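Here's a chain:
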Amino acid sequence: MMVILIWLYIAVLAHPSLASTWSTPCHPFNPTEHQLPLLSQHSHLTTCPGPPENWHVTPSPGKGLGVFATRALEEGTIVMREAPSLLITPPPIVPGYGYNVTEVGLRVQSAFDSLSPALQSEILSLHAHFKPGESSSTAFARLKAIFRSNAYNTGKDIGLFPKIARINHSCRPNAGYVWNERLGRRVVFANRRIEEGEEITDSYVPLLLSRRERQQRLDTYGFRCKCEACRVGEEEGRKSDRRRRDIKELLGELERGIAVEAKEDGVGRKKAKRLAKKSAKVVGLVEDEELPEYFAKAYRYAAVFHSRTQAWENATLWAEQGLRHMMMADSESQETKDMLQLTERCRRMWDEEQRNKTSSKETE
């Protein structure tokens, strides 16, 4: 159906590119010799192409078409990898206005016209939501609506991925996605176990918004979300909103704290302990709210702040969790490599701490 539109104002953009979902092989990064034991624990999570039989498109009650798992998919399994069929660099943003709609439309049409008939047909089969009062009488208007309803932010460009576009929205999705600049593909992966026959979902809007705010954003796509997170009663809905608000606030505070070099004086140690406590709290909140999209970030913060308090056991456990989730998205990203180094350091310090304790007991 519709895919999240990550544009600042308008998204109707394109440029021809041959879509390829399965042809690119996996290229895991080359770890150093001392990294191999740690990395081997997570080798099943490297970003490799999944077989096409992982999913199929079929009607989804109340949603039109949807993508469903044809077999049980374990956490970290690649659902699909797809290059953009249409990709365009947007025109400059006009201050106070956004993208020039006419220029955007011309780029879309020009790119679309250069595609093969088969690819044009696939794109035109996608959902198009027309705003109230918006003309839908011309092919050009329909093409623009399709892009507005289905395009993704793709690095510095905007891209359309016809197969990924069939994945429906949930405010508690079971799949995550990432744009892999190196491969030129958007990667969709299971962020928890997905059962055979279960619909695969991702998110079209920021998940830390309240239910009301999420529904307002989803009006752009022409539907009301009826996912598990939105069907709850008022009391549970208020609790969910509060958890998501707290997650957003805590992540912001931790992001600011991580950018400041830790001080070794009394004030610095006190601050580190306070932030370590908050990092553990945000881990609990994202787990309670079942938001795997934020797991890697929460675990990373917990690892960093617990390492600053020299709580090496907890820091190691959080770091390994963070590494596991980062490897699901992209095992070769710099962020993943940095997390691997942090995990190694935490484990090394924990091992040293254990040896010192053992040595101390032996000398008593």
Remarks:
- The first strand starts at residue 55 and ends at 60.
